[in-house]
Amino acid sequence: MSSAATPLRQLMQGIGRSAVVAAEALALASSAIKNRALSAAAMTLRADSALILAANAEDMRDAQAAALSAALLDRLKLDEKRVEATARGLEDIVALADPIGSVIAEWTRPNGLRISRVRVPLGVIGIIYESRPNVTADAGALCLKSGNAAILRGGSESRRSSAAIHACLVRGLIEAGLPATAIQLVPTADRAAVGEMLGGMQDYIDVLVPRGGKSLVARVQAEARVPVIGHLEGNCHVYIDRDADLAMARRITLNAKMRRTGICGAAETLLVDRASAATQLPPLVGDLLGAGCEVRGDERVQAVDARVKPATELDWSTEYL
Hints:
By secondary structure, the chain is α/β, with parallel strands linked by helices. The protein has 12 helices and 10 strands. The strands form 4 sheets. The protein has a 4-stranded parallel sheet, sandwiched between helices. A two-stranded antiparallel sheet has the order 1-2.
């Protein structure tokens, strides 16, 4: 181990030890206490909105100077509406039923032994994500609700925004009497911190969750020394059946693609039933083009509008954002 790596490893090991202690307290916390922490964090997010937006403005300035793509800039950007949506998201989690302690299956053996399968916390969850600072609130809150301690490592481009949001979560924890270390944000942009989470913290982290692009997920799955909950890229499809209500189909298609193009849930491919293509394709394609969306398609779609570009084989598997 080089001397330069020693402080970082010590930092990460300390975070891990604190998370394990916090997880023990969370596993015994009541629903009321966890919900109190989340509600207090939501109130703090609203109260500190100006501070969060100021931090985000600095992140945006650096990201623009670094020539980040339009999609990444959109993911990074916060405004009053997005901060409010983040606060409401915490309150939505408060409204969820507490999963801990619920019985999901039970049966009796021939000898009279009764067996139950009961939901319990996993322990410490490490979450590695990119760009979107609101994930700091989402991920931390979901871990808290399910009785798990969280170690969060956000993207370096959103470090100030994530830190401001994380401070609100910590204040909620403290107000509810829970350990402030129940939700920890890795306080360094050093990429080696990710390597520590993947390969050096198996004594502390019980499961890792990567949330980001295909390369991030692939790296975590390849290098992690603990179980991983992964996902595929967001190549989302909208299918319009021959019996679909055309007015509804037009609203859904336009919303699925254009509501927010930079997120992984934005639609990338539109499939229309051949039996109704003659009536459905023209208005659907026209809506997308009119909203400023580039459309690429096969010969049938190109015949609908001269602005449609020919699709290549790669287009069918690409996440454009």
